[in-house]
Specification:
Number of strands: 0
Oligomer: single chain
Length: 305
């Protein structure tokens, strides 16, 4: 085991300046003797945060070194597996793109948007995919784990904001990226861009089709309902959501049905449809009762909030 160590300043400086021997020496000192062969073996089935999770039981680091194992796993991946994109690299590159686009929206015309898109596309081309050609779920879960709620809100609204501000090409490019990273949004992000450009009727027609597409995952159809609500197509949103709720209840997909209740409540209130609201209260009570029978003693989380 190496006798070299990383000092406490790593928290401020990061790990890039330290030699690999110092990283390994520090890991070993705190209970984790690691070598490249073992690390590569772990990397066959895990990404850096997953590897650090497996190290957790043996890790004895405290104070400034409490989180060192996570940072070391990320850094060792960068050094030993440079040909494989890490989730953290994707997250950092996406953050850089979002930052450049935010600067553009704030009036900085020389924001490095083209360069940021080029970097993102290069990372995208190297990302691990599943059998359907979508990013591996494990990879995406780890990549998006560090995102704050605020960052998630920016990501969700960015394509639409770009379209509303007249940056059509960038809006379409970001919507394409959004749908690639989150396949359940396929078609939906681009429909929202169309709506933001003023093509509300065409976008609404697309969103309604998505709610009716039984080949889509339930969450995807739910997101299409959210899109209809967002563009204030309340009548069509209500019809789509009610149809989807009836189908979900018949299929005994109670969680999906419960997710639709607050959406219908929002629409009916916007329409001032008291009769529909009263009926929805009855439906909601029935669904809650069914849920309680399915999961006795389980306190249900608020769905769709």
């Amino acid at each position: 085991m190496s006798t070299q160590r990383v000092d406490k300043a790593w928290q401020q400086k990061g790990l890039k300046e330290y030699p690999t021997e110092a990283l390994l020496g520090t890991l070993g000192h705190y209970g984790l003797p690691v070598n490249e062969e073992e690390f590569r073996k772990l990397a066959e089935t895990s990404f850096p945060l997953g590897i650090a999770q497996q190290w957790r039981e043996k890790w004895k680091g405290t104070g400034p070194f409490k989180d060192f194992a996570v940072a070391a796993a990320v850094e060792l991946w960068r050094r030993w597996l440079p040909d494989r994109v890490a989730p953290m690299e994707m997250a950092e590159t996406l953050n850089g793109l979002m930052s450049a686009l935010a600067h553009l929206l704030n009036g900085k015309q020389d924001a490095p948007v083209a360069e940021a898109f080029e970097k993102m596309n290069a990372v995208r081309a190297r990302m691990p995919l599943d059998e359907k050609g979508a990013p591996q779920e494990r990879f995406m879960r780890e990549a998006l784990a560090p995102f704050t709620e605020k960052q998630a809100e920016v990501f969700d609204s960015l394509a639409e904001a770009l379209a509303s501000s007249g940056h059509t090409a960038h809006a379409e490019a970001f919507a394409d990226l959004e749908e690639f990273l989150l396949p359940d949004r396929k078609g939906i992000a681009k429909a929202m861009v169309r709506a933001a450009r003023g093509e509300v009727d065409a976008a609404t027609d697309e969103l309604v089709k998505f709610t009716e597409d039984t080949q889509r995952a339930p969450i995807s159809r739910l997101l299409a309902v959210d899109g209809l609500i967002h563009v204030k197509a309340h009548g069509r949103a209500a019809a789509a959501a009610r149809t989807l709720l009836d189908q979900a209840e018949k299929a005994n997909d109670i969680h999906l049905a419960l997710d639709l209740v607050p959406r219908l409540e929002h629409v009916y209130k916007a329409q001032n449809d008291r009769e529909a609201l009263l009926e929805l209260m009855t439906i909601s009570a029935r669904l809650e009762a069914t849920h309680d029978k399915m999961h006795p003693g389980h306190r249900r989380h608020q769905h769709g909030r």
